[in-house]
Each structure stands twice: as structure tokens, then as C-alpha cells.
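**User:**
Make up any protein.

**Assistant:**
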Amino acid sequence: MTQTDQKTTHFGFTEVPEHEKAGRVQGVFGSVASKYDVMNDAMSMGIHRIWKDAMMDWLAPRPNTRLLDVAGGTGDISFRYLKRAGQAHATVCDLTEPMLIAGRQRAEADSMADSLDWVVGDAMALPFDDNTFDVYTISFGIRNVTR
């Protein structure tokens, strides 16, 4: 394949070769993982919290369900889901391990540790068996998936 035939995808405001996107995403989110939640608040002026709460209203989490939160980063969606569902289980799957580490370090993670799993994985090749989960979310992470 010649360079002009190479498939590209978006990364921010630029086009990059598809095979480079995952590494770039990991680089960006790995470098901001410890500050990610504060950055979300600052960049959205807290509006992201309203969006996430509206998402939970729509999902209507129920007890005894299993959530797969893909590109779940620091677990914000999973924490909200578990609080609303009561007795449930959530798996946070993210390409960037530092984001998962930051999530595990959050206070909610301690109180919900028995109800949470943290898995490094790619949204395009999920490392789970079919029919393992009742609910699938991806939220803002969809923008970082190549295909």
C-alpha cells in the first residue's frame, strides 16, 4: 500500500494513519490521567455531570445487572451506575491503564471495590465473552475509537 492509499482517521483536528490513533490516544490520556476528572469539570464548566446524570436517567440502572463501561477511564459512569442500581456489577474497560489506575484511586472505588472490575482493553477488540453484560456504555470515548 502506498502512502497515498493509507487509511486515515481523525485525531483532534488532524488526520492520522489509522494504525497510529490508538497510540496517540494512549499518549494523551496517559499523560493527563491523574488530572482527568478535574479537567472535565473545568473544560465543561461542570456540564458533563448533568449529561452523565441524564444518561443514568435514560439507562435506569436496575439491581443485579452487569454494566460494561467501554472507554470508561476513571470510572465516572460506572460509579453513577452502581449508586443508582444498588446491587449491581460494573466493568470499566479502557485502552489506557493510567486512567484505570486513577479511577481505582478515587474514593468511590474503595466503597465499591467488590462491585467493580478494571480491565485494560480495546473497544474494537473487547476481551469478553458474548452475553456477559446487560448494559454497554461508551460515552465520550466513542470519539477515540478508530472504527
Notes: The beta strands are 8-11, 14-17, 66-70, 89-94, 116-120, 135-137. Residues 18-32 form the longest helix (15 residues). The CA atoms of residues 74 and 105 lie 9 Å apart. The longest strand covers residues 89-94.
